[in-house]
Amino acid sequence: MEFSVKFENAPGLPENKGPVTVGWFLNSQKAGVIFYPPERFRSTEKNKAHAKSASRCPAVINMESRYFVFRAPFDLHLQFVRDKDGKPGLRNLNGDLSPVRANKISQRLHVTPEKEWRHPNVPTIQLSLPYVLVADEPVYVTQLAPFMHYQKDPWPGTIFGGRFPINVWPRPLMWAFEWHDTSKPLKINRGDPLFYVMFEAATPDRSVALVETELTKELADYVDFVSGAVNFVNQTFSLFERAEEVRPDTLIKPVKRRKSDD
Question: Residue 200's closest CA among 149, 144, 150?
Answer without folding.
Answer: 144
